[in-house]
Amino acid sequence: MRKDKLYLLTFLSLSIIFLIISSVAIRYFVNEAADKVLETQLEFSKREAKQVATLIGNQLANNNSKDDVIKSIQKSLENTDLGFGFISVFDWSGKIICHPDVKLRGQTISSKKSFISSVTEEISSKDLYELIQDDKQDLNSDYNENSQVIFLSPVTNSDWIIGAHANTEKISQHINTLKSNFRNILLIMGFLFILSSVVIVRVIGSNYEKKLELKNEKLSDEIINLSKLNSALDSYQKQLSDSNVIENDEDLDSSSKKRILTYLRNELLPVSTTDIAYIYTDTGITYVICNDGKRTVSNSSLDELITNLDSNYFFRANRQFIIGISAIDKIVKYGNSQLKILIRPNSEVDILISKNKASEFKKWLNL
Q: Are residues 279 and 176 in the same domain?
């Protein structure tokens, strides 16, 4: 149940983050795309209007009659695809001379409804985008309420003006289509990203849980083994105490000593092996620690002492320590594979049994 809740929270968190990022991304991408589209449309409209103005100017300069020129231009404009924009011809009074829609010829363009007010006025793609985004903005004229005059180019040798129109309705629809496409793409990508992220989190979590379970099982086995080891230790200590192995066992190895000779300052002291808790070396000196905490010094090395001590009672834990069975308080796990021996009286130096010697230690405890 907790895992399902975790996966749900992961999904919701990723979804919220994605929605925030995608909302910013959509706005940015749409603005950039719209700016490019409008910039291209503006450049195309300006170029087309200038070319037509130059063409008409040349025809008039060659003494072609205005009527012939008007007929030629009107024929070229009729039934053309309005697309994102088109051009028209009108005079300085605003009267339409040529237009793709023949029915609009002769009508007048209201100066209040034109996006630009003079032939010297220049607009940018941002200006056009703001116009399209403004729902309250009046559209340009009575003859085509869905278009705006965005550029004016005067015709030389006449009072005519070429007007470049932008079909704001179609441009707005195109921008909305771009916005919709961006949104759909981001939603699909976001869904796939979130779904794959949740799946990956679930797979990684499952693998981690399996490893954790194996680790816990291994730890449980180690705890059981340590419990067995401590139980065997208690049993062995009780067995040695009840049978009084050290002093009374008739089968005791004759080579085992019952006492060792130690020194306390200038005093020579024999110490019974039954009183020894542990023996250790430090800076080349061998110390003998008794059960009551008394410490004396021996001239013998640990190698010499272990050969003369009862192996049932004493164990060579490592190069530095010989420990007595009665002094062991507890056995705990240390590191990955070592054992740590806690003894009484307490030792200032940790007594560690390596992995290689752990099996020998267990055999010593009759495990």
A: no
